[in-house]
Amino acid sequence: MLYVQKKNEDLSRGAFDLTTQMLRMNPEFYTVWNYRRHIFIQGIFPNSSPAAINELLSEDLGLTAAFLKQHPKVYWIWNHRRWCLEQVPDGPLDEDKDGWRMANWNKELFLVEKMLDVDPRNFHAWNYRRYVLASIPVRRSQVSELSYTTRKIESNFSNFSAWHQRTKVLASLWQAGELNVAQSREDELDLVKNAMYTDPDDQSVWIYHRWLIGDGDDPLLLQREIASIQELLDEQPDSKWCMESIVYYKTLLLRRHLSTMDTSVQQSLVGECFDLLSKLQYVDSNRKQRYIELSDEIKNTFL
Amino acid sequence: MGRVLLKVIILGDSGVGKTSLMNQYVNKRFSNQYKATIGADFLTKEVMVDDRLVTMQLWDTAGQERFQSLGVAFYRGADCCVLVYDVNSSKSFETLDSWRDEFLIQASPHDPENFPFVVLGNKIDVEENKRQVTQKRAMTWCQSKGNIPYFETSAKEAINVEQAFQTVAKNALQQEAEEQLYVDYPDPIRIDSESSQNYGCNC
Amino acid sequence: MELDAVVLGTGLSESIVAAALSKAGYKIAHVDINPYYGGDEASLTLDELLQWAKERAESSVDSDSAYLSSQRERFTNISYTGSLPLQSRQYAVSLLPMLVPSAGPTIDSLIASGVSRYGGFKLLEKVALFDSPGVVKPVPGNKEDVFKNKQLSLLGKRRLMRFLMFAGGEFEDKPELQGSEQMPFTDFLKDKFSLKEEAVQAIAYALAFCALASDPTLPALERIRRYLRSSGRYGPSPFLVGHYGGAGEIAQGFCRTAAVAGATYVLGRQVSSIVTAPIAEKTTGKYTLNLEDLSEQLRCDLLISSPDHLPLDLQGDSSITTASTNCSFARCIAVIDRPVSFSTSESLEGSGGEDPASDMPIQDLSVDTALLVFSPSSIPIGSSTVAVNVLITGEGSMSAPRGRWILYITMPLLGDQSGGSHSPEELLRPYLDATLSLTRTSEHPESALPLVTLFYEQSPREGPENNSTEASLMLSTPPHSRYLPEVADSAARNAEVTFWRALEVLKSAGRLPGDKNSEEAVENFWPPLEYVNGEDDEW
């Protein structure tokens, strides 16, 4: 019956209510969501005041929030929410054009953060959260965003998404000149080293470290970090991430600063890499082939 | 609005019919066998009070009143106290006063003057000539103690039981709402085999 | 009254046994001379506590019951200061401070018996080590704690994590442990894990809850593993604190469930005589008890009693279920009207106004229900050998009214403290003062003054000299482990041992549970739970 109505361009309240019923039964019916929005735009909104529109959109947000409890990953529900949020009109007053928007976006932020409390590693939720932050009319400060990631990492350690978010926030802060880059980087290296030493098996921590080091144009920094990781390796001789990272950074040193080294130093570095790579073949035998290839690469490049 | 749980305790001498009243109200059953409340712990029932759905938890004395051995734990957090006597036993009526006092001491409600009691004169199904406590006498006492609602009941014949407990529910709900003003306790941890949310050992 | 067994004393262990026997179908009477439940583990209001203290502090009189004489020997050096605050009845003070591990025999018994439905629990918020006046050290018990800790070096963190992983796993066959099982735990941590003093203290006293530096390794590791595995079940902490005083309330719960299953309860009456029938007579029960002010005699074939409830003449004949490894304790109970804050040295440095980096206001570090541990030599005039713990319980545990907290200080009298030359007040006052230093704030720069303080020494009952073989007369072992988180579980374990032995005694006396025609043996400590409101044949 709904298809008939749609075909006939039925934009009535009755048709609207029917879409509600159908979506309650199956929220994955994307054509029904489309039709609902169509009714809103063509039928209901033109005859409603901004306040009424805001009210209707808030109701739909409430409805979809309830759906999300049962179906937290259905894309069409999230999609409809985005649409609703983007439709919020100016208001309530001329002087406060973003009032309704702020209210709705802030609620959205609260919702997604609640989801992240329950499942801090929900990658989709982190993405959605970035979208919400970018859409809020009055932006949250990046500095408070940085604190948010700190809290998330502190409360649940192995959190790739939190570290990842941190890279984005820092990049933005550095570019905007809001933080002293050198100091900030030092602070981050200190933070990530604490994480490394606490759990050397956590991959996200090593990836973050790599991001901090960047393209390795500071040889002293590289050497210092290599020494730190070596200390950790001495304490934890079976740590494959330590070994792999040392190889990576030593190779980086070789690539970027070959001209500043005399041959004996070069050769030591190369030898050390070979040593570690052969150990890795043993410690991480699943990826034996990769280490062999790396060895060959080094051999070909530097010998 | 969260789920409302009302704790109701039922006090009175052994044998007046406390457990029978509870069972009649919740399970609509009655048994002549006096097994001294063996097996009766607490019964729950959901009731509507002024369009609100509440859960009443009725606590039986489990026979511990026989030798004055009800512990303070029994009284804690009660939202209403039902005092029961047997209309055919004057003694069971006379002890109501001490049961009421005992309750107020043990439960220590914030506003003892206004704590909701309900009095039930049970076993009215027994022949009239056996009756020892008149309705007038009972009502006089109830009025003197702050206008306590009074019902004459028969658990056996299911007379007035529903009405009595409806009043209990209503008054208990009001008490619970007032008590909430005094307290701000965080949700307690309830232990049962299903409730373990795993936060995960992080080692 | 014809009974299968009589239990004397409503302490925690006895109450669990009474409940188990009653639910198994045996006819039980459970008696306590006090007008309240819980015995030596009771939850008392403040005026009841004062009364309790006075009775035991007074000198003996001939007319004293055997129970009171016995209690006076065990609770000594009692001193009480302060006036009774208003709202005395809003307090539920425990005579036995207790932590219930989230996994273990106590929780299992609470759930299986249904007693868990009667009351609620509060999760212990934090454990911290005392550092210096006004300052505590956090106790890193998991990965997140270790990461955040600002006092450990990088290597220190790695080594601590390595230890925690070891302790949480199957360490029995690991090389580090071989041959070192009895080594002092503190030495083990230094030798095998290269841990520094700070970390050693945190692990030994605030994770393993050792009483002495010399406490052996294997039991300490086993305790740590139990607690690591309990964390996460109801929240981050492995420990629960029972509402309304804990132990006493839990004991009442077990008594109630025993009553529901048919047990008869008699409070506030003394046992005036116990007569043992000669072996030849098999018609009535072996023991006949008379209670004062009760015309009915109790007859049974098995008697289980807490130490102080049994008349002296029978004590020598009784058997005990488990050997007592208990020591004496110096105890303090204090009531304060300002909260304790667990401020660490970092939180003090960073204090003052909002943290500009976030929109969060300054942290409130005050605690409601938490544990403070003093390692040996942590305060200048304290003990240099023994660890002392302070359990703090506030409104959230339903044991005190709003704005009030109860402090329970416990010192096992071992090591250099076992001499007995100092009063409990002398021993514990420095710890009380140190704890009170944590109540200082910018608005109140001086330490809070307690409203009420009680100091006393508690000694275990000496077991009978010769452990008699009279199995039908059992002395119940009280739950006073020197390790705070083991207290509850030791009571539960003792109760279970007692239960199985009781079954043997009853069987050999020809007593069968419930329906006498039933041939089914009792197989479990607790029978399956019936649902509330369930169909019941009798009705």
TrEMBL record, chain A:
Keywords: Prenyltransferase, Repeat, Transferase. InterPro entries: Prenyl_trans_a (IPR002088). The keyword Transferase applies. This is Geranylgeranyl transferase type-2 subunit alpha. PANTHER family: GERANYLGERANYL TRANSFERASE TYPE-2 SUBUNIT ALPHA, PROTEIN FARNESYLTRANSFERASE ALPHA SUBUNIT/RAB GERANYLGERANYL TRANSFERASE ALPHA SUBUNIT. Its EC number is 2.5.1.60. Catalyzes the transfer of a geranyl-geranyl moiety from geranyl-geranyl pyrophosphate to cysteines occuring in specific C-terminal amino acid sequences. One of its GO terms (biological process) is prenylation. GO terms for cellular component: Rab-protein geranylgeranyltransferase complex.
UniProtKB/TrEMBL annotation, chain B:
It comes from the Eukaryota. InterPro entries: P-loop_NTPase (IPR027417), Small_GTP-bd (IPR005225), Small_GTPase (IPR001806). One of its GO terms (cellular component) is fungal-type vacuole membrane. Transmembrane segments: none annotated. One of its GO terms (biological process) is regulation of vacuole fusion, non-autophagic. SUPFAM superfamilies: P-loop containing nucleoside triphosphate hydrolases. It holds the Pfam family Ras. Keywords: GTP-binding, Lipoprotein, Nucleotide-binding, Prenylation. SMART domains: RAB, RAN, RAS, RHO. One of its GO terms (molecular function) is GTP binding. Belongs to the small GTPase superfamily. Rab family. PANTHER family: RAB FAMILY (PTHR47981), RAS-RELATED PROTEIN RAB-7A (PTHR47981:SF20). This is Rab7. The lineage of its organism: Eukaryota, Fungi, Dikarya, Basidiomycota, Agaricomycotina.
Automatic annotation (TrEMBL), chain C:
This is FAD/NAD(P)-binding domain-containing protein. One of its GO terms (biological process) is small GTPase-mediated signal transduction. It comes from the Eukaryota. GO terms for cellular component: cytosol; nucleus; Rab-protein geranylgeranyltransferase complex. One of its GO terms (molecular function) is GDP-dissociation inhibitor activity. InterPro entries: FAD/NAD-bd_sf, GDP_dissociation_inhibitor. It comes from Hermanssonia centrifuga. Belongs to the Rab GDI family.
